[in-house]
Design brief:
Elements: H1 6-21, E1 28-32, E2 48-51, E3 69-75, E4 78-84, H2 96-107, E5 112-121, E6 131-139, H3 160-169, E7 174-180, H4 189-197, E8 202-204, H5 208-216, E9 220-230, H6 239-262
Length: about 260
């Protein structure tokens, strides 16, 4: 069977959401990672919602703290689409399902995107629950969502203006560099030392491929990551505890994310 064009699948998904949610396009998109669901508690009731499995190309997320819903909010004439959960590369379905959500948001017309996740921190001075705005990344999964002569400049992949705006709204947020390993296993102590030497402050298993996909469409990206463990510290990493810590931070910064999405 011939593989389907992933961009065509995203366009089809966008068409389904336009019809189902009675929207011609959107202004911004959000992808909520592990434990970030409570960020929407300050956003009011969505205008529409559906299960991701009801839309072409989407797969139900398997990671803890990922609800598997698509939500549509309308604030002050602005339309925002929220993907509550994501597909990870470690699930074994390849790269295309990982970035399908981003490509669908792009097909809907999004010009701004907020990505969220949970991380392990190499910075012991950052407490659990610290939210970090990403400034750059290391793609230690060594894969790309781009195939062929699709040359995308990632020099300014993490938009400095969006980052400055969220820091103004939420001064407790700090900034750092994120390293993506493919997972699902956690990195070894030697791999952690390598990442630190290369400039990483944080480590996780998501987000980087989505950023690359977004930049192909010139979408401005803000990525926020919650410290849920301290790497190479001897701590035992509990996935349920990761979600609990991220949920607390998400509730705290949720109102600021809405305010950011409502700005011009």
């Amino acid at each position: 069977m011939e593989a389907r064009d992933p961009y065509a699948v995203a366009a089809s998904a966008a068409d389904v959401l336009r019809e189902r949610f009675s929207v011609s396009g959107i202004d911004g998109g959000v992808i909520l990672g592990s434990g970030w669901g409570p960020a929407t508690q300050a956003w009011g009731e969505p205008a529409h919602r559906c299960d991701v499995a009801e839309v072409p190309g989407f797969m139900r997320p398997v990671a803890p703290g990922h609800a598997g819903e698509i939500l549509h909010y309308r604030w002050s004439g602005r339309d925002v689409m929220v993907l509550s959960g994501r597909t990870h590369y470690y699930e074994g379905h390849g790269v295309e399902p990982v970035v399908h959500g981003v490509r669908t948001l792009a097909a809907l017309g999004a010009t701004r995107l907020i990505l969220t996740n949970a991380n392990g921190s190499f910075r012991p001075e950052w407490p659990l629950g610290q939210v970090v705005a990403l400034t750059d990344h290391l793609n230690l999964a060594w894969v790309s969502p781009l195939v062929g002569a699709r040359f995308v400049d990632l020099t300014g992949a993490y938009d400095p203006d969006l980052r400055a705006r969220v820091l103004a709204l939420e001064p407790t947020i700090t900034s750092g560099v994120y390293a993506m390993f493919p997972g699902p296993h956690y990195e070894t102590a030697a791999e952690a030392r390598m990442a630190v030497t290369m400039g990483a402050d944080l480590v996780g298993m998501s987000t980087v491929l989505e950023v690359i996909a977004a930049r192909e469409f010139d979408i401005k990206v803000l990525a926020l990551s919650t410290v849920t463990a301290h790497e190479a510290s001897g701590e035992i990493i509990d996935p349920d505890e990761v979600v609990r810590i991220a949920e607390q931070s998400a509730r705290r910064v949720g109102p600021s994310l809405r305010a950011l999405l409502e700005q011009d």
